[in-house]
Design brief:
This protein is α+β, with helices and mostly antiparallel strands. It contains 8 helices and 15 strands. Strand 11 and strand 12 form a beta hairpin. One of its GO terms (molecular function) is catalytic activity.
Length: 337
């Protein structure tokens, strides 16, 4: 199973939704947990369905803050246990062995004065000690001072409260691959802050059940939080889909498209239906080549963004990060067209 958890920082604009769709097409998760949707339930349901997730639970935002959505593909077996404005708790049944395990999407209160209530909520959810349990999301807190760079030092009492909460629930951090931080603020080196606020934690039963899982911090071009992609098994494969010929509107944005159509038409003989058939086959080959080139370009941009994000921030570095994110967003816009 692939599970994507992301504080998207609002889905009120169509461009943001389109970029989310582009991300989901790229990683193809079977379950998504979205945080800070900033949408009412009905509108979030429409966004979720437009992303291809018919089934799900949508928790309304409080004005322009909050909002959660946990959604799953049709082939996932899910039992909903409880939900609130801070969590969505479900049980998954794996197809292969019929093994059941709990997953709680969690959003800890961003306000310091509300942390105790959030920690009490997590402790109250610890009511099935023998079942494998994963909690994933935005905890808005650090476990260690080393998980923060820039800005004011984190209060030791806050971090200790978080550590004690996880200990009481028999949960431990499951680690990650990728850049070390999940949240960033500030475009200049003088005010840049980086923190690891998003994570996955699990109990020993879950860690015993999934021995070859991995959690990746994905590079991103919008939201100040990075997406977390959990893969429960290294053998998980993206399903291949049937490809049907369609003329893509985005092809018209490529300078070589017109010339390719002209060359294919001129090189064909016979009646019009036969020529159109040959052109469609030729365009498919052209599209495969162009798509491969664009994929290489996007991967290069993502790799550069990863390198920049891992380096020590300075003004030149942060400026190039913005330019690289802009280039990635432009590619996402073309893809959406």
């Amino acid at each position: 199973m692939k599970l994507l958890s992301w504080n998207v920082r609002g889905l009120g604009q169509s461009r943001t939704v389109n970029r989310l769709k582009n991300m989901l097409r790229d990683v193809n998760p079977s379950v998504i947990f979205l945080i800070e949707t900033k949408l009412q339930s009905k509108r979030m349901e429409g966004v979720r369905k437009s992303c291809g997730f018919i089934n799900g639970i949508d928790v309304a935002s409080n004005g322009r803050s909050g909002g959660l959505s946990l959604a799953w593909k049709n082939n996932s077996k899910v039992q909903v246990r409880s939900y609130s404005n801070r969590h969505i708790d479900v049980i998954f049944e794996e197809d292969l062995d019929g093994v059941s395990w709990r997953c709680t999407g969690f959003y800890e209160a961003p306000e310091v004065e509300n942390r105790e209530a959030s920690w009490a909520l997590l402790r109250s959810l610890d009511d099935m000690p023998d079942m494998p349990w994963l909690v994933i999301g935005d905890f808005n807190e650090l476990l260690l001072a080393s998980e923060k760079q820039g800005g004011r030092l984190r209060s030791e009492s806050q971090m200790n409260g978080f550590r004690m909460d996880l200990t009481d629930c028999n949960l431990e951090d499951i680690g990650y691959n990728g850049i070390w931080y999940t949240w960033e603020w500030g475009r200049l080196s003088s005010n840049n802050i980086r923190e690891r606020l998003d994570r996955g934690v699990a109990n020993p039963a879950w860690l015993t059940l999934f021995t070859d899982y991995h959690l990746d911090h994905l590079v991103h071009s919008f939201s100040n939080h990075c997406p977390l992609l959990l893969t429960t098994s290294s053998s998980d494969q993206t399903r291949k889909q049937m490809h049907h010929f369609r003329f893509e509107a985005a092809w018209l944005l490529d300078e070589s498209c017109e010339g390719e159509v002209r060359n294919l038409w001129n090189s064909c003989t016979g009646n019009i239906p036969d020529r159109l058939t040959r052109i469609s086959l030729g365009l498919e080959q052209w599209f495969i080549r162009i798509k491969k080139e664009k994929k290489i370009h996007v991967k290069a941009l993502q790799q550069r963004l990863k390198e920049l994000s891992e380096s020590q921030p300075n003004d030149d570095n942060l400026e190039e990060i913005l330019e690289t994110k802009l280039a990635l967003n432009m590619e996402a816009d073309r893809e959406e067209i």
